[in-house]
Every structure is written in structure tokens, then in C-alpha cells.
Design brief:
Keywords: Membrane, Transmembrane, Transmembrane helix. The protein is of the alpha+beta class. The protein contains 13 helices and 4 strands.
Length: about 300
Amino acid sequence: MFCVLLLLGLAVKSAVLAHWVLVGFLIALAGIIFVNLLALWRHSAARVPLSVLVAVLTATVILTTFYVGISGAIWMFPVLVGLRFAASPAQYQPARLVLIVMVPLVVLYHGDAGNAGRLLAAALISSAYLWLAEGEMVSLRAKLDRDEGRDPLTRAFSRASLEQDREMISRLAPVGLVVIRLDGVMALRNQGQDRQADKLIASVAREIIPILSTRERLYRLGNSEFMIGLAGWRAFESYELGQHICRSVQPTLPEGVNAQSGAAEVHDPEEFESALARAMAGLDTAPTGVAPFSPEVL
């Protein structure tokens, strides 16, 4: 929220200086961050695509450099670092390249060739360091995920972790179970499109994990299925969450891949397999989207 207030304050300052195009982009950026913050607080998916956020942020830095000069250009460096936390590599890496090229060119346009050269050199060095550091961070995160019992691809907990956690069911009962299946992913794998299938699985996990609290866990069951464990949830509540997740992720899936959900609840560790089987059975009878609710899941 502080960032939103800071951007609005900069917009007011820019209005005083009659930098109207910059004012528009600052207000747009503040609005995007605010809307997505509201979505985060409500445990839902981002309302404004991250690709739009990255594009507006990149344009704002370039415009700040154009209007303010070298003092505006220094904002390029925190943005180069922060972009990796704002979007996927396919989105932030082109934005980095645009900033590295455009910001020094704008400074050169103002006639400051010396600082333009220094900015270009510093940006190239910073980006090279970030590229190397991010590779190490990915490797380290994968190791830590394995140590925590997580799947390195999706960061969901593994089936082995699920087998250990089921012993807590009696203490946390009732425990809601939501199974999410991406119907069509196996067809992609059968066609030799394993990389695309992995990207889909990982993207869906990224949509689900932020909306879960510390008492709720996402587990990867197989090549195309996840399970969410919900401490204190009843079956009908779990069903509603499954519906919400399917509605959220379906627009992001390619043609031929459909999100389906099934729900159940469990009170005792010995009943877990039968409850999971009921949730999975709901997937087999579900149309595209979500499983029909029936008293059987109770």
C-alpha cells in the first residue's frame, strides 16, 4: 500500500511540473498494484495480468527518465531487480532488455553521452549478475523444496508428504479435500509435448498456492492432478473452493485442456483413501469445469 501512495504522490508532483503523460502512467501503475493487492487480500487471482503490470512499469521508468533525466534513470536499477518478482521470466526478461537499451538512449537524447555510457555499462553488469544469481537461486530453491518434501516443478507438497500429513487428520478434523485435475495434460504428454505440459502444471500451482492459508496445503498427486487439504473445512465448502479455482484457471488453459474438481471431507486417517476416492470419482462424472455436488461427498 505504501508503494501505491508513493506513486500517487509522484503523480501529483509530476502534475505540478505538467508532465501529463507521466502522470497518466503513474496513476495507471498505482491502480494496477492496488487492484491486484485487493485480489491478494481476498485470496483470488490477480485481476490485472502481470504482463500488463510489467509493460506499464517499464514505460513509467522510461518516461521518468525522459522528463526528469539522470535522476529518473536511476530507478532503472531497482526495477531490473524487482521485475523477477513481478512476473515470469518470459515476461520480465524482454522488459529488462528494453530498459537496458531505452534508458541510456533517452539520457543520450538529452545530450549526456557520458552518463548514457555509464548507465549502459552498469545496466549490463547488473543484468549479467542477476542472470547468474537467478540461476543459482533456482537451483537452491529446488534443493530446499526437495528437503521440505515439495515438488520442485510446482512447489506443491509431494505424495510422500501427504502420506505423513494424513496422521494429523484426527487432530484437524473435519478436513476438506479438493482434487483438481487438468484433463488433457496427459494427451499433451502422449504427443511428446512434455515441456508444455510441465508449464501448464506449474502455472496452475502458481495460481492456487497464493490463495491458501498456512492451515491449507496443496499436494501434487500425479502428472495432472493436485489435492488441497483444508483443515476445518466441510465438503460443501471444499466444493465451492474447487469451483472457484476451476473458474479462475480455465481462461489460462489452452484449448483441449479443462480444469475439473471433486470434493470430499474426512474425519479419520483410516478414512482418507476412501474420501480421496470419492473426490476422484467426482472428477470422472464432472463436465468441463467442476464436479457436480452430491451428498455422497459428505
